[in-house]
Amino acid sequence: MPLDPAQTLTLRVGRREPLCDGIVAFELRATDDRPLPAFDAGAHIDLHLPPARPGEAPRRRSYSLCNPPDERDRYLIAVQHEHAGRGGSAWLHARLQPGDRIDASAPRNLFALQPAPHALLLAGGIGLTPLLAMAETLWAQDRSFTLQVRVRSRARLPFARRLQEAPWAQAVQVLADDEVPAGTEALDRLIAAQPAGTRIWTCGPAGFMAAVRAAATRAGWSADRVVTEHFAAPAPVPTLEPGDRIASGSFEIDWAPSGQRLAVAPHESVAQVLQAAGIAVALSCEQGICGQCCVQHLDGPADHRDLVYGAHEHQVERRFTPCCSRAPAASRLVLAPLGWAPAP
């Protein structure tokens, strides 16, 4: 039976280990030591953190699982201290210690492996985390792969010892910018050298992943051969044309189950308006990169801004992410929970 992503797990911190400058690994176990829900390579969990300030809603932050997926006794995550972030990583670095308990979601996977004759796993810094679980799976299944990790310096390489001692260590390449400068030519050469039918899974800073996609495009690869995992949404590109896709403006939403009509101002998100009206929204990343808050889009011109779903999910499955997606000014959207249908 499929796992309910909304299921809440209470986990105990079994171990905390500094990996390198600014990155700490946390080993999380069930409080009763029972087996944890299974997960596949590329999956993540959402940690439930206290509110940033009194009176605010609790925070949820997503972290990739990087231990072998056949392990059922623990979840392993790595957290980079983001000094310019929203405070989640700072709280975990400062507060979470062995023996502490923390609530989390069951694993969800928006970055799954797919069949390919060869997998090229490209990591930028902390983006290594989901690719570690992929390497473990590919090796266990005797599938062809290469894992290349790009870091600023070897002092910033997380899981260095694990990469050296893994049974698949011969498939690993580590490139440090202070040893081998990064450049588009290197990516072009790397992609040109791949076997026919290779697919890329890449995770890391937005600029790094954009460079990978651009190199694949120059090589004539179709877009579906590059799969990305985002830790943060890229900043929108401004436009001067009123009514363009990313232009903001007031619009209305109808919440179909209750018939409520709500106004969304330019400075508000749909999720904020729904919450203010007493409608529960499962917020996590608040950037359109996890899909946790997804609702059903029944009618109206939707301006999809998430980085999770493609055309099929938007147009056929009618998925809408209220944390970031909007509608054109002066228009109206009709929304409902996923799976909702009007009474006959």
Automatic annotation (TrEMBL):
It is an enzyme of class 1 (oxidoreductase). Signal peptide: none annotated. GO terms for molecular function: vanillate monooxygenase activity. Transmembrane segments: none annotated. Keywords: 2Fe-2S, Flavoprotein, Iron, Iron-sulfur, Metal-binding, Oxidoreductase. Residues 6-114 form the FAD-binding FR-type domain. CDD domains: fer2, PDR_like. Its EC number is 1.14.13.82. It comes from the Bacteria. This is Vanillate O-demethylase ferredoxin subunit.
